[in-house]
Specification:
Layout: E1 2-3, H1 29-49, E2 56-59, H2 62-76, E3 82-86, H3 92-103, E4 108-111, E5 126-132, H4 144-150, E6 155-159, E7 177-181, E8 192-196, H5 222-237, H6 239-254, H7 256-259, E9 263-265, E10 276-281, H8 286-295, E11 298-299, H9 315-318, H10 323-327, E12 329-333, H11 340-360
Helix pairs in contact: 1-5, 2-3, 6-11
């Protein structure tokens, strides 16, 4: 089996989850020890992120983090002229909360390409801009600093699901909120986090025991948090080595566009992450190709897993690519567990399968 769908989720590395899985809110010695371990994990991750530990909140993953950032911000500023900006090819966990808040009148939500963003600085009391660090389908890396320069007074929220532990990035003065999810870098599913710079006001939408300093109620997932902190540290320490290894794999897979006719790479710019390669095999249906490759042990996707059953316009179409390129596209996404030997075999499987399918057509 060759698994090249790591942008959807990564295989779990077996990291120690810690012996203390007790409730950090309990007043007895076991609870106090759990609270101490929770804080140690928070500090460890904060160092990797480049934030203060008081700015890191644990959640169930990227989707909850993105919803908390957007809906929490919308609710906190619902009585002001609040504008939330995003491009139409962002992840659904960004776009859907914006639409939800706009439909209920909490914000003015503008989901348009950045080239169409008007100069809104004088039209809003407060503005939130939602961006992806690394685009989940094409791997394009967002120039966050340039956007902040164009909108210096805006609050910048970055979805780091495809970037944390993979791309050389540390939170600076241009990022106000940042989300991440453990299962994108070999941690367990159901655990992630959100960095909220001190001074940014959000309203919680989960209420209960007051955990995570009152912003996210619910008993903390101690096993998941401990495992996430361990794997994040290991991945960040080996980031440069992993980056070079994955870049070589991506470059080899990309040679398919020279060895097969009518094969093109889909990206908005030349500045992309090596972890994601999006290619269109023109004349073929991506869905059929995915199934044929999977039958031969090569597992890839057509794009974001959470959009695979939706019938609306694809992300690639919103990025300006033709419908033909969108429907014939495959996303190869890699991890540090992948090897060049796998890439050589996958390259041959794709080449033979595409030639066979085109011959049948």
């Amino acid at each position: 089996m060759i698994y090249f769908d790591n942008a959807a989720t990564t295989p779990i590395w077996q990291y120690p989850l810690g012996e203390n899985s007790y409730n950090p809110s309990s007043p007895h010695l076991l609870g106090i020890a759990a609270e101490r371990q929770l804080q140690q994990n928070r500090v460890s991750l904060s160092v990797l992120l480049g934030c203060h530990d008081s700015e890191l909140y644990f959640t169930s993953g990227g989707t909850e983090s993105n919803n908390l950032a957007i809906l929490g911000f919308a609710l906190a500023h619902s009585k002001r002229r609040t504008i939330v900006l995003a491009q139409p090819f962002e992840h659904p966990s960004i776009l859907t909360p914006i639409k939800f808040a706009a439909e209920r009148g909490f914000i003015q939500g503008l989901i348009t390409p950045i080239s169409e963003w008007p100069n809104l600085a004088d039209k809003a009391d407060i503005m939130l801009i939602c961006l992806s660090q690394v685009h989940h389908e094409t791997g394009d890396i967002t120039d966050i600093n340039a956007i902040k320069k164009s909108y210096p007074s805006a609050i910048i929220f970055v979805d780091g699901a495809q970037g944390f532990c993979k791309e050389p990035f540390i939170l600076g003065g241009n990022v106000d909120m940042y989300s991440f999810s453990a299962h994108k870098f070999h941690g367990h599913g159901g655990i992630g986090g959100l960095v909220i710079r001190n001074g940014i006001r959000l309203v919680p939408f989960m209420h209960g025991g007051g955990q995570e300093r009152g912003l996210r109620a619910g008993t903390e997932n101690m096993a998941g948090i401990t495992g996430m902190a361990a794997v994040a540290k290991t991945m960040c320490l080996s980031r440069e080595k992993n980056h070079a290894q994955i870049a070589a794999i991506k470059a080899y897979m990309a040679t398919l566009c020279h060895e097969l006719p009518n094969v093109v790479i889909n990206a908005a710019s030349a500045h992309t992450s090596p972890y994601i390669l999006n290619m269109s095999f023109l004349g073929l249906k991506g869905e059929i190709l995915v199934h044929m490759l999977s039958e031969q042990g090569l597992h890839v996707s057509m794009g974001a897993a959470c959009q695979s059953r939706k019938k609306s316009h694809s992300t690639l179409e919103f990025m300006g690519f033709s419908a033909e390129r969108a429907t014939s596209a495959l996303r190869f996404s890699f991890s540090s567990k992948n090897t060049m030997d796998e890439a050589v075999l996958a390259h041959e499987i794709v080449k033979v399968t595409v030639q066979k399918l085109r011959g049948m057509i």
